[in-house]
Amino acid sequence: MEAPVTEADILRMAQQLAMSRLSKGRALTEPKQVFSHLQTLLQYHEHEVFALLLLDTKHRIIGFQELFRGTLDGASVYPREVVKIALEHNAAAVILVHNHPSGDPEPSQADRTLTTTLKNALNMIGTQTLDHIVVGHEGCVSLAERGYL
Question: Is the four-CA dihedral 136, 142, 148, 149 of positive or negative sign?
Fold first, then answer.
């Protein structure tokens, strides 16, 4: 007799599906292509998580990697480590991603400042920053679409 499927089982399966949709080789042409997958992966964290979506020269996915975990309302993000991961994966471009545990995906001034800092650091190694997506229960916001890149 099989045990009933729990809510936790469903969430775990949804997260596995989202990760498979962010699998290697898939080309991205616009931010909305990844919103639902990123939301599935990050919206239920009770702490801030910063991640990178690593892309090749044709903007195909190389990988998705969570880099930093923080607290309820912030995470320390180190440009050196972001650059290191981009180099290790030979990424031509990246999409910066983080969640807001509050559920509100509206970017803060700190988010905009971090975007500029990381974009400048990544430019030094020839890696393009395509976007910074903020994820919350209420949806996703693209800083590129808002004109912050």
Answer: positive
Domains of the chain (ranges, CATH numbers): 27-142 (3.40.140.10)
What is the chain's length?
149
For 3-33, what is each residue's pLDDT tens digit? 776 766 666 666 566 555 556 666 767 777 7
**Single-letter code of the amino acid located at 144:** A
What does each C-alpha distance from 2 to 5, 6, 12, 16, 127 come to in angstroms?
A: 9, 12, 18, 21, 49
Residue 72 is classified by DSSP as S
Write out the two tokens for 116.
């500029």
Q: How far apart are CA 16 and CA 29, in angstroms?
A: 22
Strands (E), 7-79: 49-55, 61-69
Crossing angle of the two packed helices 32-42 and 7-21, in degrees rounded to 10: 140
Q: Which amino acid is at 72?
A: L
